[in-house]
Amino acid sequence: MNGVDLLNRPVLMRGIELGRVVDVILDQHEEPIGLDVLCGDEERRFVPMAAARIREDDVEVDSPLAMLESEQLDFYRSRGRTLRSPD
User: Fold this and answer.
1) Where are the domains of the chain?
2) Rounded CA gap, 24 and 48, in Å?
3) The pTM is what?
4) Reduced to 3 states, what is the DSSP secondary structure of residue 58?
5) What is the rounded distance in angstroms from the CA atom of residue 39 to the CA atom of residue 61?
6) Which CATH architecture has domain 3-82?
């Protein structure tokens, strides 16, 4: 699966939608390290790939604690590349 396939997928916890994937953060080898998620409260949060289960039509997390606050998202965005950023 490539990162484009993840865009706009709902992020769920026990069937409750927490937000939608708006970008994918990639490492220097173009491997996804996390998801940029726009949540229902209009905040953007970071979900590490290790905390996400990619399913056929959505992304599942076990806990909202797996969704890191915007400061952590900024940290990863500044050290990686986003799927939507120009090369």
Assistant:
1) 3-82
2) 10
3) 0.88
4) coil
5) 13
6) Alpha-Beta Complex (3.90)
Per-residue pLDDT of the chain (87 residues; tens, 9 = 90+): 667 889 999 999 999 999 999 999 998 888 899 999 999 999 999 999 999 999 999 999 999 888 988 888 888 888 888 888 765
Helix (H) or strand (E) holding 54: strand 53-54
Rounded to whole angstroms, the Cα distance separating 56 from 50 reads 17
Ramachandran quadrant class, 81 (left: phi over 0; alpha: psi -120 to 50; beta: rest): beta
Q: Burial, 18: exposed, middle or buried (Cβ in 10 Å; 0-12, 13-18, 19+)?
A: buried
